[in-house]
Amino acid sequence: MGDETSTSASGSAQEPAAPALQGAGSVKQQISNLVALSLRATVPEVDVEPIVEVCTGKFGDYQCNNAMGLWSKVKGSGTSFKNPNAIGQAIAKNLPACDVIESASVAGPGFVNIVLSKSWVAKRIQDMLVNGITTWAPILPVKRVVLDFSSPNIAKEMHVGHLRSTIIGDTLARMFEFSNVEVLRRNHVGDWGTQFGMLIEFLFEKFPNWEELGSQAIGDLQVFYKASKQRFDEDAEFKDRAQQAVVRLQGGEEKYRAAWKKICEISRNEFDQVYKLLDVQLEEKGESFYNPYIPQVLEKLSSQGLIEESEGARVIFIQGHQIPLIVVKRDGGFNYASTDLAALWYRLNVEKAEWIIYVTDVGQQQHFDMFFKGCQDGWLASRSKGKEVPKNESCWVWPCSWSRWQALPNS
After folding, report:
1. In this structure, what are the phi and psi dihedrals at residue 157, rounded to the nearest 5 degrees?
2. Are both 300 and 182 inside the same structural domain?
3. Both 161 and 216 in a single domain?
4. Closest of 34, 42, 49 to residue 116, by C-alpha
């Protein structure tokens, strides 16, 4: 690191009043706030964000790494600074007098090594033991987050992918909530689609008095689903009735809606047992919830010339993809993409989310790539470096896969 020169925080030449630090976020954020004040005093003509990292060596607890970047901006402009080290010395000197920092030293080309006050650390630990850890919560630039996770399919077993999504999503939710962010925990269950036609018809056939039955009488939904699927594949007459049942369900016929609700209730009870074991709280807003919003969302995209007819279906052609994003099937029915478009619209315009995070298997990457690109063409606008800025709303949208984060267009 090179030779160091040291400056006591309480002995700096300039001693502006220290900012209020209680409840001001993590230690790193508090140090960053102090460094930001010093940077404004050191180079008021340059607008720069503090670069503060945890020290890995023996020279301090935190390190400010702004000096070299500032030198590249001010050299040759008549500045009084001779080199990056001189800028580092000024940053250390201009740190506000406070009880947080014991000392600040400069090494090499302006690295400012900051040592925390042991008495301040001791007081904060005592405060944490007495009053809890909430005062250490990081301050995030967001107040409301929609977190889409778990999302199993009705009448199917919750598999390991759903469990991963559930656990990762709940962990993220708790982290946000710890930081005083309002988290809307959304369970986007698969409770709609053509498979419900065969389930409903099989229910009518197997249990003529289905309305009077409890959930135990139907038994294992997995077995029930497989039996109905076998019947659907092997019996043309049953398949025809199942397809008609879908039309009646989507048309709102009471008998079919009631049967659908019973099947969903049985499945929901099974999911809730898992959530109870994991101590996970979720609010269900499944695919069916967003159905009423699909037509207006598709109309908006269509009015912008983004939806085209192709082989009897309505699609969005996505740059970089050979196959289009189908939003209305040949038979006029909606699908996952149309539902996801409506869900995103609802989360932006009704729930007023600032961040939206999808916790999902990386195997769905292509769907999300196409889905978000379609949204970008419709109501998202580009900016440099691959990031996005809003046209109407201020919102970041991410899919989160198991092994990595990938930032995608914000809206």
Report:
1. -70, 140
2. yes
3. no
4. 34
Distance CA 94, CA 7 (A): 10
Q: Using an 8 Å Cβ cutoff, are 71 and 83 in contact?
A: yes
Which residues share a beta bridge with 401? none
Contacts of 272 (CB under 8 A, 6+ apart): none
Mean pLDDT to the nearest integer, 300-318: 88
370, containing H or E segment: helix 365-379
pLDDT in tens, 86-145: 999 999 999 999 999 999 999 999 999 999 999 999 998 898 888 877 777 788 888 999
**CA–CA separation, 291 vs 250, rounded Å?**
10
> What phi, psi does 94 have (nearest 5°)?
-90, 5
User: Do 329 and 382 lie in a common domain?
Assistant: yes
Structural domain span for residue 150: 144-191+286-400
Closest to 409 in 3D by CA, of 369, 367, 351: 369
Residue 339 contacts residue 191 (beta carbons within 8 Å): no
Phi first, then psi: give them for residue 383, nearest 5 degrees: -140, 180
Q: How confident is the model at residue 386 (pLDDT cuts 50, 70, 90)?
A: very low
For 317-326, b/e burial (b = at least 16 CB within 10 A) is bbeeeeebbb
Tokens of 116: 């925390």
CATH number at residue 149: 3.40.50.620
pLDDT: is 380 or 372 the higher one? Answer: 372
User: Lowest-pLDDT range, 5-9, 98-102, 162-166?
Assistant: 5-9
- Kindly give, in sequence order, each residue whose CB lies less than 8 Å from that of residue 158, ignoring residues fewer than 6 positions away: 152, 270, 271, 274
Q: Residues 6 or more apart from 77 whose CB is under 8 A from it?
A: none
How many Cα atoms within 13 Å fall on the side-chain side of residue 18?
18
Q: Is the pLDDT of residue 15 over 80?
A: no
The total of structural domains in the chain comes to 3
Where do the H-state alpha helices sit in 43-150? Answer: 67-74, 84-93, 118-131
